[in-house]
Amino acid sequence: MFIIRQESHAMQEAVSCVEVAKQSRIPIVINDRVDIAMACGADGVHLGQSDLPARQARMLLGSDKIIGVSCQTLEQVQKAYEDGADYVGSGAVFPTTTKKINSAIGLEHLYALCRGSPLPIVAIGGINASNVKEVLRERPSTLHGVAVISALFDQPDVCKATQELAEIISDVFNS
């Protein structure tokens, strides 16, 4: 799954990414913007706590689209579930340069959310090649993966960084 960040040229970027991703059968999830997700034919949307509530997004997008919600507490996870979300993005697990407000929940809190969640969880925030094994070490049944931005796009060779991270993750899941 690939998440488009909100930028000034978001619609143009989203349309281009959707075209490429559909050819490769990679789901595209737009960050924060239900309107752009609808307009470009994306597979879904990822919402923060201050964005449109998942229940309203579900009404607009329908049952066949993916809806994820960022959550830091079990109460938020439960609300996301009740509102029709498909997954939870939990974090930031570690400090990150991607968000302006940068409070990390840490691994133990991530695992507690996983144990209490009825939804699949994707760990987000500050995850990279040096700590992804640690994030995935316990592999709670609801922890379905990690989402990264800086771990790839802050590297001089994005393709090489992607391959290295994919190998590490594959090794964890195949061990």
From TrEMBL:
Q: What positions does the domain Thiamine phosphate synthase/TenI occupy?
A: 8-152
Keywords annotated in UniProt: Magnesium, Metal-binding, Thiamine biosynthesis, Transferase
Which cellular component, as a GO term, is one annotated location? cytoplasm
- Name the pathway it acts in: Cofactor biosynthesis; thiamine diphosphate biosynthesis; thiamine phosphate from 4-amino-2-methyl-5-diphosphomethylpyrimidine and 4-methyl-5-(2-phosphoethyl)-thiazole: step 1/1
Looking up Gene3D superfamilies in the UniProt record yields: Aldolase class I (3.20.20.70)
Q: Which processes are annotated in GO (biological process)? A: thiamine biosynthetic process
Task: Spell out the molecular function terms from Gene Ontology.
Answer: metal ion binding; thiamine-phosphate diphosphorylase activity
CDD domains per the UniProt record, alphabetical: TMP_TenI
Q: Which cofactor does it need?
A: Mg(2+)
Indicate yes or no for the key word Metal-binding.
yes
Tree of life domain: Eukaryota
| Keyword Metal-binding among record annotations | yes
Q: What reaction does this catalyse?
A: 2-(2-carboxy-4-methylthiazol-5-yl)ethyl phosphate + 4-amino-2-methyl-5-(diphosphooxymethyl)pyrimidine + 2 H(+) = thiamine phosphate + CO2 + diphosphate; 4-methyl-5-(2-phosphooxyethyl)-thiazole + 4-amino-2-methyl-5-(diphosphooxymethyl)pyrimidine + H(+) = thiamine phosphate + diphosphate; 2-[(2R,5Z)-2-carboxy-4-methylthiazol-5(2H)-ylidene]ethyl phosphate + 4-amino-2-methyl-5-(diphosphooxymethyl)pyrimidine + 2 H(+) = thiamine phosphate + CO2 + diphosphate
Q: Give the EC number.
A: 2.5.1.3
What NCBIfam families is this protein classified in?
A: thiE
Q: What is the protein's given name?
A: thiamine phosphate synthase
Q: Could you tell me which species this protein originates from?
A: Ceratopteris richardii
